[in-house]
Design a protein that fits this description.
549 residues, alpha/beta, Rossmann fold, Glutamyl-tRNA Synthetase, domain 2, Ribosomal Protein L25, Chain P, seven-stranded mixed sheet, binds adenosine-5'-triphosphate, binds magnesium ion, Glu_tRNA_lig_a-bdl, EC 6.1.1.18, ligase, aminoacyl-trna synthetase, Glutamine--tRNA ligase
């Protein structure tokens, strides 16, 4: 009973089991296959699967595929993969389209009960007739068609006798209802579109608001968990279940959406970023999609822990992206091997080190997890350091390399900068240093201290590698921004690519291997760009954080 921290939905379930209203809990995760899953969906997945699991109940993965124009099998497959990767197994896999026959029959039942009618008004007219929050709507002139005429017209809609938009089927409830969702909502529309599951069998498709409660009821879902914007739909949800005479009566429960700072989460906007070429596909490591985060290097554990730590409430909440970063650091701290990599190389020649000599130095694989053991790293007369770790004219309190200064090379020796070599344009292209053999790491040298420790990679054995560093894709764009304008906030520096070097023992790294590069942060071997000849590392997150839980 502890996948999910205690929350109001869990309390409802406990009560329903205690009172005998339900013997077991059944939930479902109901994505529409019109895009890839994002971190917001992870919240819904973890709630649905986690809660059912806490009570040894069941969870269905159900594709809400009632809008064939926007849906695609590519999305179905990616969603399945992502749910599994997050660590969840569905008890049943269903498609809303499996129920099209039953939905049609329930719509016919409504017509027979005088609770649904075929309307000839156009979409615009229906909107006009609907009224506003302050004014009631008015009845369609077609509202009082006879049951026989409605049955005949609905049959003919199904037979394909009408074009798209020519007619709709509407529930007959109350055009004056204070809840706009109850002003005769459309429940079936005509769409001559091939469906990824049912092909050309149907040219009429149920509307989401009608289909969804039926899907839940058909499956016997006990608690239908959805996001807060559906709260006003609940009366219609209950109306459908009741008037369609469904045996099971699921309870709709709404919770607040999860949003992240500097992150757009709507599938429509994510799709726009993909289609307009701002990113390299749905799985671009800058995307908040599950597949993007996987490629970036986030672990399922870190996403699960993060989501569980965000509250389940009735309000939409925006959570600091740094909280997610905190949890991936926590997860990788003991798991990821430590290593050294040079992102922006500067050659250093150690002039007093014997030419041709290679020495193997010992280094811990992870000082916080000694069980991971030791590794050997070569050292020789030529190494690379970071360009950033040298300054010719340093400010005060700069403790890294500058002419005449001495620093420690991590796991190796002290070196002192003796000479700066420049090219014809005056750029620093090489440093000439000396080392002190007495200062070898691990020998307990105490003769003198240096203030800076920098990392390095031995030059003749170094493995070339590409480093991809990321910043937020969107700056200052909350979900509240107006239509389209979020594209004005795309960060031009969201991806920076560097060609550098890593330790030779990393040559055999495989896609999705994760490392902590000394001083640079956690990185993941990119599965898309890495080849046998070239390692590509995505920075998951840097080491520093201002975030406090
Ligand atoms: P989007 O608005 O991003 O397009 P959606 O709600 O249209 O998402 P669906 O495929 O319909 O996407 O969502 C499947 C489930 O995931 C729904 O129950 C939905 O409420 C939930 N969900 C989607 N986004 C979030 C979010 N940001 N936080 C929590 N749950 C979410
Ligand atoms: Mg949706």
């Amino acid at each position: 009973m502890d996948n999910q921290n205690s929350n109001f939905i869990k309390d409802i379930m406990i009560k329903d089991l205690e009172s005998g209203k339900h013997e077991t809990i059944m939930t479902r995760f109901p994505p529409e296959p019109n895009g890839y899953l994002h971190i917001g969906h992870a919240k819904s997945i973890i709630l649905n699967f986690g809660l059912a699991d806490d009570f040894s109940g069941t969870t269905n993965l159900r594709f809400d595929d009632t809008n064939p124009a926007k849906e695609d099998i590519e999305f179905v497959n990616s969603i399945k993969e992502d749910v599994k990767w997050l660590g969840f197994e569905w008890d049943n896999l269903f498609f809303a389209s499996d129920y099209f026959d039953e939905m049609y029959n329930r719509a016919v039942l409504l017509i027979k009960k005088g609770l649904a009618y075929v309307d000839d008004l156009s979409a615009d007219e229906i909107r006009e007739y609907r009224g506003t929050l302050t004014e009631p709507g008015k009845n369609s002139p077609y509202r009082d068609r006879s049951i026989e005429e409605n049955l005949d017209l609905f049959q003919r809609m199904r037979n394909g006798e009408f074009g798209n938009g020519e007619k709709v089927l509407r529930a007959k409830i109350d055009m004056a209802s204070p809840n706009i969702n109850l002003r005769d909502p459309v429940i079936y529309r005509i769409a001559h579109v091939t469906h990824h599951n049912t092909g050309d069998k149907w040219c009429i498709y149920p509307m989401y608001a009608f289909a969804h409660p039926l899907e839940d009821a058909i499956e016997g879902v006990t608690h239908s968990i959805c996001t807060i914007e559906f709260e006003d739909q609940r009366p219609f949800y209950n109306w459908v279940v009741e008037q369609c005479e469904m045996k099971n009566q699921p309870q709709q429960i709404e919770f607040g959406r999860l949003n992240l700072t500097n992150t757009v989460m709507s599938k429509r906007k994510l799709k726009q970023l993909v289609e307009e070429g701002f990113v390299d596909g749905w799985d671009d490591p800058r995307m908040p999609t599950i597949s993007g985060m996987r490629r970036r290097g986030f672990t399922p554990e870190s996403i699960r822990t993060f989501v569980r730590e965000t509250a389940v409430t009735k309000n939409n909440a925006t959570v600091d992206f740094e909280m997610l970063e905190h949890f991936v650091r926590e997860d990788l701290k003991l798991k990821a091997p430590r290593t050294m990599g040079i992102i922006n190389p500067l050659k250093v020649v150690i002039t007093n080190y014997p030419e041709g000599q290679i020495e193997l130095l010992d280094a811990e694989i992870n000082p916080e997890n000694p069980e991971m053991g030791m590794r050997k790293i070569p050292f020789s007369r030529e190494i690379y350091i970071e360009q950033d770790d040298f300054m010719e004219n340093p400010p005060k309190k700069y403790f890294r390399l500058f002419p005449g200064n001495e620093v420690r090379l991590k796991h190796a020796y002290f070196i002192k900068c003796e000479e700066v070599v420049k090219d014809a344009d005056g750029n620093v292209v090489e440093l000439r240093c000396t080392y002190d053999p007495e200062t070898k790491s691990g020998t307990g040298f105490t003769g003198r201290k240096v203030k800076g420790t920098i990392h390095w990679v031995e030059a003749t054995h170094a493995v070339p590698a590409e480093f991809r560093l990321y910043e937020p894709l969107i700056l200052d764009a909350s979900e509240e921004n107006e239509e389209g304008t979020f594209l004005d906030h795309v960060n031009p520096n969201s991806l920076q690519v560097f060609e550098g070097f890593v330790e030779p023992n990393m040559k055999e790294s495989r896609p999705h291997d994760k490392f902590q590069f000394f001083r640079h942060g956690y990185f993941n071997v990119d599965p898309k760009h890495t080849t046998v000849d070239k390692l590509v590392f995505n920075r998951i997150v840097s080491l520093k954080s201002s975030f406090k839980l």
